[in-house]
Design goal:
By secondary structure, this protein is mainly alpha-helical. Helix content is 77%, strand content 0%. It contains 12 helices and no strands. Helix 10 crosses helix 11.
Length: 309
């Protein structure tokens, strides 16, 4: 029996605190959801923060949409009518990952080989691959129900395997970030100077794109292909309102993401208990992040001396 059944907003945290001290195993569905969402928040705050500083948020937007091509392609190749497109198997995960990597490769190719501007490259690849996805769905899978889980995630269906996948990617992102902390910090603010001192900016660009692809695909099951963009961008925008340096920027991004996740899971349980209405936890978290940003936009004076120091 779920220990959180019937819990309201405040009793959720009381129950969680008691279980943390007395023993939380086996994990309840709310706890699985919380752990997975915290992993997603950590990954998105780190990777999304770096993308925002580099003014590359459209790259994350492109990846979050074009992964649909990999999901649909795998479905058509497997051809099992019993499947629904909600990423229930490693095949769908790998298909989405391949599509994400393909997106990055094609954008880089258009930019470097054909000398297109970055926004033009993103626009061509984004619209092209997404259009192919819609075409495949229309022509090859028009009788198949495209589950809302692809868009909004399926937080209520998360299992231990989802925890492993999400936190494996989260620890990978955290490890890479800590390992190349100085390089990422410098290249995020002055890529030209980084190149002059031998930082190989193309390598770190490619590494960041790979992290973006991993992060997006790992977040699919929990938050879907669209809302992951809110997790990547909004915490970084919130952090830019307060942070005076790079360290504070990343710290505030992670902290705001974690606060939104805790509140979202508690609110989701409260609404279900009080009104018997099941709402998307990822959707609630995205709304909370947007509310945080709007409130802080009016409350705080923008720091103009933001630096990498």
């Amino acid at each position: 029996m779920n220990p959180y059944k019937g819990a309201d907003f405040f009793s959720f945290f009381t129950i969680l605190a008691k279980r943390l001290f007395t023993g939380i195993l086996p994990l309840a569905s709310d706890e699985k959801q919380l752990i997975v969402f915290l992993g997603v928040a950590l990954s998105c705050a780190i990777v999304g923060g770096l993308l925002v500083l580099r003014r590359m948020t459209m790259m994350a937007n492109a990846i979050s949409h074009t992964v649909l091509l990999g999901i649909v392609a795998v479905f058509l190749i497997v051809g099992a009518q019993s499947y629904s497109l909600i990423l229930p198997s490693p095949l769908f995960f790998m298909g989405a990952l391949i599509a994400a990597v393909l997106t990055v490769v094609l954008i880089t190719l258009f930019k470097t080989v054909f000398h297109l501007q970055e926004d033009a490259s993103i626009g061509l690849v984004f619209t092209g691959l997404f259009a192919i996805s819609i075409l495949l769905i229309t022509k090859g899978a028009h009788n198949v129900h495209l589950g809302v889980e692809v868009i909004m995630g399926s937080g209520d269906l998360l299992v231990e395997e989802d925890i492993q996948i999400v936190w494996m990617i989260a620890l990978f992102n955290l490890g890479i970030f800590l390992l190349f902390f100085k390089e990422y910090k410098l290249s995020s603010f002055d890529e030209v100077f980084g190149a002059t001192i031998g930082l190989y900016p193309r390598f770190f660009f490619g590494l960041l794109m790979l992290q973006s692809a991993f992060t997006t695909v790992a977040a699919l099951r929990a938050v879907g292909v669209v809302i992951v963009l809110a997790f990547m961008v909004t915490p970084a925008l919130i952090a830019k309102r307060y942070a005076k340096n790079f360290n504070q920027f990343i710290g505030i991004s992670i902290a705001s993401s974690f606060v939104a996740v805790f509140l979202a899971v508690a609110l989701s349980r409260h609404i279900l208990s009080a009104y018997s209405l099941g709402l998307s936890t990822s959707g609630i978290a995205s709304c909370l992040l947007a509310i945080f940003y709007i409130i802080l936009q009016k409350k705080v004076i923008k720091v103009s001396s933001f630096s990498y120091g």
